[in-house]
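As a warm-up, study this chain.
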Amino acid sequence: MTAEIEKPLLEIISEHAVGLTAAPTRETPIADLGIDSFSIVEIIYEVEEKLGVDVPFNANENPFGDMATVGDLIDALDGLISKK
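Now compare it with the structure written out below.
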């Protein structure tokens, strides 16, 4: 299922990323996206709306956890969708 969510997720991320000179890929480090806390909330909302998945989110925790790359984020969302 990863391929089905990868393209829309990359599009959502690229809309909110600040300072990227190229489109994000699975290898793009999350730290390079320049995403602030407000953008994180917007991304989560869009993911829930466009991909039909509930994303657990606690504003007091790092929403990316141990994720280092965009690919880690895609894989985590894929896992949430698979649980549906």
